[in-house]
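Morning run. Coffee first, then this:
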Amino acid sequence: MKFLTAAVMATGLIAAAPAEAQDSRPNIVVILADDAGFSDFGAYGSEISTPNIDALAARGALFSNFHASPVCAPSRAMLLTGMTSHLAGVGNLPETLPPQHQGAPGYLGRLADDVVTVAALLRQAGYRTAVTGKWHLGHEPSALPPAHGFDRSFVLDASGADNWEQRSYLPIYPDAPWFEDGKPATLPEDFYSSKFIVDKAIDYIDEGDGAAAPFFAYLAFQAIHIPVQAPREFVEKYEGVYAEGWEALRRKRFENVVARGLVPEGTELGPMPDGLRAWETLSEREKALFAKSMAVNAAMLEAMDFHIGRFIGHLKQRGEFENTVFFILSDNGPEPNAPTDIPGFSQWLWWEGYSRDVETLGEKGTYAFIGPEFASAAASPGAFFKLYAGEGGIRVPFIVAGAGIPAAGQVADFSFITDIAPTILDLANVEQVSAFDGRAVKPMTGRSLMPLLSGVAPHYGPEDAVGLEAAGNAALFRGNYKLVRNMPPHGDGAWYLYDMAVDPGETRDLAAERPELFEAMRAAYERFARDSGVLDMPPGYEQMAEIAKKWMEKNGWYIAAVLLALVYLAAAAGRGALRLIRRS
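And here it is:
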């Protein structure tokens, strides 16, 4: 860290301030979208309006080769700690963890004891720290934000929740567990997730006697996670925009990405994963429902950007904007799940009072999702989507802008989500540590991006290997090459080798053509897996099937009761109709 910081200081991007002048250090804001695809932001070629995010991209650096985990909790652990997910203790979603992995060091479902968050290091160095939004790293007292360096926090510890009310979005959760400063909390009556997350962040920044100290604010939005919901005034703007379907959108997004130079000329758009539907095979009713669902999805993202604009406006009003650095990214690729495909889920929606009426979709009491086909379009030009290690699941938008960040334009170098924490420390002139709060901590595996942004040094060399794994879906990057495995149901569990410099769409497997490279990459992945504590998945394991299995095991009686109630109501309705016939 000292070498990197000194190298960056030599460029004049960061001034070495004496201790008594530390309050001049930049504020740090991390904005995390949930399930936004590579081409979802306007700056990346989307038809969705995100003017505030786009404006930040225009004054800083827009990364075109940045990667995260294919699922959210591991990404969040890596973002905060600078450690690969298994070393951070969160190698898989807690909700999809097979029983065989329970309690293993890489699968704790919370941050491990031998890692430290960037928030904790910043707070120790004099920063005020706050987090609002989705946490998903455990809700025991030792797992919540106050135990990990946050002065103030209002967080959701679940994979998601309703955006209008304090209610669960999946039957595996009894409620929506929100916590303020480590204690169970209640949402206000006028709650809408993106608005509330910004409102609380503003409150936390404004309060306290230490207002002169710099702040670290982590805004973890629920947009655009299931259920996609948005105010009507945003939804109306996108009515009819998606009427041509997912194939047309995927092609248009691809053309826009290529035109912006975000992927090389000659990149091929690969096929959508096997088993997905063609738009023309849908009924008119189905087309209307999916087009409206995608409209709500777009509206939810624009609503998030609108409230980010409110946050930026507040910083400008306080005179803080020019001394603030923004990191904007997504935790993984777009969400492909269609919950109503799970047996009993439609009945649960009915029981809970959720509507899927096309006219009101997105409003309070409704439940929408875009499904795997539109998710594939949002991931364009990448293969696959969230859950999978194809580029569509792990190559995500990433923008850095603000104080000390040069207007670098597009950055095509490979980078990883673990690189954000050491970059933040570099900007704040804070050292990494080997011990914290009386315990030994592991060194960060990520690397600061500041030398890359300043032109001092390349980020990763041709022999540097970076691996990732979640629920058996795995990848290893080295130089221009990527080794990847995607598991069922959309993958086949086989390993493939691609040249990312010319084929980011993952259309031409080089395993047979380059056998020595393939085997070397396989060996490098095995070393990564061994050193990180990656465990093999049990035979027959499927990530989303594990959720359904746990739900059925826990709530089989509930499903049976709902089905019996439906049968009774149907029978009662039938008897009523028969009486009307007899009377006539």
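The longest helix spans residues 543-583. Good start to the day.
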